[in-house]
Amino acid sequence: MRSLVLVGLPGSGKSTVGRGLARRVGLPFTDSDHVIEQRLGCSIRDFFAREGESAFRDLEQQVLADLAAGPACVLATGGGSVLRPANRDTLRAAGHVVYLRASPEELWRRLRNDTKRPLLQVADPQKALRDLFAQRDPLYREVAEFIVDTGRPSVSTLVNMVMMQL
Ligand code: S3P
């Protein structure tokens, strides 16, 4: 079986839905951000602050390529994984890419108290989310085999929605 790759903005439920999917299809669950943090030995937030976004994107690209070359899994990716065209090719080659889509308003509802995401540690995080959505929605659509609108259904409903598309 090929991997199932989840893409979407921060807060779209990639890790939560990914864990449920992994149980359902019997594949291991991998979170690329977690692998990056293991390699770094520190949090992504600290690395971002110290080295900047471009250094983070280089490492992210390397980790995604390594994971795509490894055994099949359910892979939750970081929200910016689609920014580089090379990553979009990597993710498509790894398996079925699923875009978990949620509106910026819904994402804000879920992330308003978040302190982990460096791109939201700005004066107007709600606007930052709207801008990220405008920039990335077309890229998620481009890379994904299908889209699941997450809205407010439960995790198990979302897992079923993904399963129905496979
Ligand atoms: C990022 C999203 C984060 C993480 C990093 C950058 C982004 O992952 O990779 O902070 O550019 O949107 P999540 O989507 O899991 O929050």
Automatic annotation (TrEMBL):
<feature type="binding site">
    <location>
        <position position="33"/>
    </location>
    <ligand>
        <name>substrate</name>
    </ligand>
</feature>
<comment type="subunit">
    <text>Monomer.</text>
</comment>
<keyword id="KW-0067">ATP-binding</keyword>
<dbReference type="GO" id="GO:0009073">
    <property type="term" value="P:aromatic amino acid family biosynthetic process"/>
</dbReference>
<keyword id="KW-0028">Amino-acid biosynthesis</keyword>
<dbReference type="InterPro" id="IPR027417">
    <property type="entry name" value="P-loop_NTPase"/>
</dbReference>
<feature type="binding site">
    <location>
        <position position="117"/>
    </location>
    <ligand>
        <name>ATP</name>
    </ligand>
</feature>
<feature type="binding site">
    <location>
        <position position="79"/>
    </location>
    <ligand>
        <name>substrate</name>
    </ligand>
</feature>
<keyword id="KW-0963">Cytoplasm</keyword>
<keyword id="KW-0460">Magnesium</keyword>
<keyword id="KW-0418">Kinase</keyword>
<comment type="similarity">
    <text>Belongs to the shikimate kinase family.</text>
</comment>
<feature type="binding site">
    <location>
        <position position="57"/>
    </location>
    <ligand>
        <name>substrate</name>
    </ligand>
</feature>
<dbReference type="GO" id="GO:0004765">
    <property type="term" value="F:shikimate kinase activity"/>
</dbReference>
<dbReference type="GO" id="GO:0008652">
    <property type="term" value="P:amino acid biosynthetic process"/>
</dbReference>
<feature type="binding site">
    <location>
        <position position="136"/>
    </location>
    <ligand>
        <name>substrate</name>
    </ligand>
</feature>
<dbReference type="InterPro" id="IPR000623">
    <property type="entry name" value="Shikimate_kinase/TSH1"/>
</dbReference>
<dbReference type="GO" id="GO:0005524">
    <property type="term" value="F:ATP binding"/>
</dbReference>
<dbReference type="Pfam" id="PF01202">
    <property type="entry name" value="SKI"/>
</dbReference>
<keyword id="KW-0808">Transferase</keyword>
<keyword id="KW-0479">Metal-binding</keyword>
<dbReference type="GO" id="GO:0009423">
    <property type="term" value="P:chorismate biosynthetic process"/>
</dbReference>
<protein>
    <recommendedName>
        <fullName>Shikimate kinase</fullName>
        <ecNumber>2.7.1.71</ecNumber>
    </recommendedName>
</protein>
<dbReference type="InterPro" id="IPR031322">
    <property type="entry name" value="Shikimate/glucono_kinase"/>
</dbReference>
<keyword id="KW-0057">Aromatic amino acid biosynthesis</keyword>
<dbReference type="InterPro" id="IPR023000">
    <property type="entry name" value="Shikimate_kinase_CS"/>
</dbReference>
<dbReference type="GO" id="GO:0000287">
    <property type="term" value="F:magnesium ion binding"/>
</dbReference>
<comment type="function">
    <text>Catalyzes the specific phosphorylation of the 3-hydroxyl group of shikimic acid using ATP as a cosubstrate.</text>
</comment>
<feature type="binding site">
    <location>
        <position position="15"/>
    </location>
    <ligand>
        <name>Mg(2+)</name>
    </ligand>
</feature>
<comment type="pathway">
    <text>Metabolic intermediate biosynthesis; chorismate biosynthesis; chorismate from D-erythrose 4-phosphate and phosphoenolpyruvate: step 5/7.</text>
</comment>
<keyword id="KW-0547">Nucleotide-binding</keyword>
<feature type="binding site">
    <location>
        <begin position="11"/>
        <end position="16"/>
    </location>
    <ligand>
        <name>ATP</name>
    </ligand>
</feature>
<dbReference type="GO" id="GO:0005829">
    <property type="term" value="C:cytosol"/>
</dbReference>
